[in-house]
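Collaborator request log, item 7. Partner lab (contact: R.S.) asked for a structural prediction of histidine kinase to inform their binding assays.
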Amino acid sequence: MFRTFQSRLVFFFLLVSLSGIILVSLAIKYSFFGSFNDYLETKRSEQVEGVIERLELEYRTGGVLTGETMMPIFHHYAMVDNLFFKLYDDNDIPIIDTTRHLHMGNSHMMDLPSIEELESNQFLLMSDGKKIGVLDVYFPREYENIDSQFLEQFNKYIIVVALSMIFISIIVSFLFSKKLTHGLRQVSNATRELQKNNLEIRIPDEKHVEEINQLAKSFNELALSLSNQEKLRKQFTNDLAHELRTPLATLRSQIEAFIDGVWEPTPERLQQGHGELMRLVRLVDDLEQLLAAENPQIQLRLSEINGKDALESLRASFLPLFKEKKIKLLIEEPRSNFYFQADRDRFFQIMINLLNNALKYTNEGGIVTVTSKLENEDVCFIIEDNGQGISEEDLPHVFERFYRGEKSRNRKTGGVGIGLSIVKALVDAHKGRITIDSEQTIGTIVKVTFHKTNE
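Returned to partner:
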């Protein structure tokens, strides 16, 4: 038993890796998770105790319980820690209710829980032995997103440690065999190059024993995988950076319209500007997350979207841009409301990209038309322009990343050839369809289809 090198390698590999995995699992189960839960509960208790002390101090100081001094703290706890409060006076009349943020958050596409997902505790507010009010505290039953992300990241570190132990056991096992010196030297040299970020390094395909051949093959696959991941990371970084220009341009046009007196700063228009700003913030957040994530795919947050309202929002956002370039924008209002399922931010990202393309490649005095219609169980948005169009040889490649036809034209517009590839990826993620029909010098018709919501 264990006479062959392969059997001993398997033995040491299993011994080291399983030992590490068992030790790490036990440490996580009996130490870290318990300590982390205690920390979260202690933190929440200290926050609530601090609020109660300050409310009672406010009453003792002013003789009345208003909670006005606590509003910044209440708002901070609601936005950062998902900790909400309802404050009542001694007659159980509501004074402050920060759970309204839950409804506000849902309308602004913020990641807040519903009140049904929260647990609650009630505390009496006392002063000199007399009841002065009641404080209801609402908090999540489970981990918040940031806590879950922390635990997931911690688990990833544990996995990396376990894999490192496995890797070390393999290397040590191979080093005990003198017959494999040449093969191990190649592996060692290639590993050093990989550590220097030389992702193109490969081990030559030579005749070694089976174990070394398998190791060389695995290393090459690993280097290839790392190289592809690095290219994918840079590609997605460039994609998102490209998308930052769109909300900035929209915000700029709206603000300039306010400054020039073209628009009055009404609450509705300010709200539209705020929506663009929040889309910009979320794009920046996505960029930061994608740089650190192993999987760069973006999770969709599907919701029911009112198509009529969405078209009106696009009209308000893009009309100043089209007027500036002296292009006529026609967005046909549907006869009745209709609804469809999509991620609201990604839907606007799709439509904004397509309208920006129409704006870029339509000459002064041209017309861009946006229509919508129902087809069976689908909702279709059609963007038609009489601009420069796309040549027949370029049309099959318009969705390819970084593909740019007519380089001189693209130098003028500043495109880098990723806008339509992003649109295609987002439409595919929605399980929708997108088609482009175009003829050079005549114009382009883009048709995007989403699934309709059953009313």
